[in-house]
């Protein structure tokens, strides 16, 4: 017999979870409260497949069949021909939730044919992934409870942050009110600083002019003092000369009298000049005293200008501090808005986690009740099956003996057919050889040329 070449088996992508047998899948479904028959998995129909997936959505995701009615009614309310889309919309929503569950369980090739034309192997693969996910969820229940506790802790922290944010808002309001109250004083101080600055600039100019004038008067006073000293020296010289002349007696008294009168006149003139110089000196002294007072006033004004400059620096620092506080206030406002949004998000997450925890607790209680009931039913069924096991065993032995007889008959039949097939093949090859010889002979006799 000729050998048959086997076609290579195409490689398929293996799932990322262990495959379960039909019995294991049925046990897991029963633990979830989903009662199915073996034919529903080995020979699935669209009705049984949709029933199984709907029950799994209710048990694992908390999406009962009636939960789709409200969004379905809302969507149909926006459509014109509701009766045409009602069934299709119901199926589409069911498929969307089933695909989300399958994707969550690591099944990426879930499609509509799994609900409309289910295949036994694909159904077993999908149910194996979902059951592995259910077991993983039960094993990680402690971790889920830890997450719930963490969410509660975050909620308390969010409450504290909310109180802190309210206190920050109150402080910001006080700072804003204080800033608004200080603004008129700041504007008034700024106007006063501007007027004092202009006045100081005028006084500075006047100080410079007075300083130049004082220097000129000091130089003039020095010149007058030097001139008065010279005149006093000349007067002393003349007095000594007059005394010397009087001590001498000469023969010409007229000339002496004339000299005395000239000298007396000269002394009178010098005294008048000296009196004038002294009066000018007293006047210059008074002016110097006035200039000294002005100089002291200018020094005080300069000190005042320095004080004003320091106050101006302080005002600028206060303005910069105010700008920094304003920027910080805006930053706190932005941070407060972020914290508010985060608190709202945490509240939503907490509410979602609380609802999910409540559903999980309800599901756990229902699952335990169904499992307990199922165990009781299985025990009762086991007792019944144990009673009929002996009957089935006898029937099994009879069937095994019949099967052995049939196998013997089939072996004999196959051997007989193989011998007949070998004979037929021998006749076929003999006939084919004779036909080829005949064709070659006819070709030669007819003179046909084979290209």
Automatic annotation (TrEMBL):
Residues 17-149 form the Kinetochore protein Nuf2 N-terminal domain. It is found in: Chromosome, Centromere, Kinetochore; Nucleus. Residues 266-379 form the Nuf2 DHR10-like domain. The keyword tRNA processing does not apply. It comes from the Eukaryota. Residues 148-234, 294-416 form a coiled coil. The keyword Cell cycle applies. InterPro entries: Kinetochore_Nuf2_N, Nuf2_DHR10-like, Nuf2_N_sf. GO terms for molecular function: protein-containing complex binding. Its main location: nucleus. GO terms for biological process: attachment of mitotic spindle microtubules to kinetochore; cell division; kinetochore organization; meiotic chromosome segregation; mitotic spindle organization. Keywords: Cell cycle, Cell division, Centromere, Chromosome, Coiled coil, Kinetochore, Mitosis, Nucleus. GO terms for cellular component: Ndc80 complex; nucleus. PANTHER family: KINETOCHORE PROTEIN NUF2 (PTHR21650:SF2), MEMBRALIN/KINETOCHORE PROTEIN NUF2 (PTHR21650). Belongs to the NUF2 family. This is Uncharacterized protein.
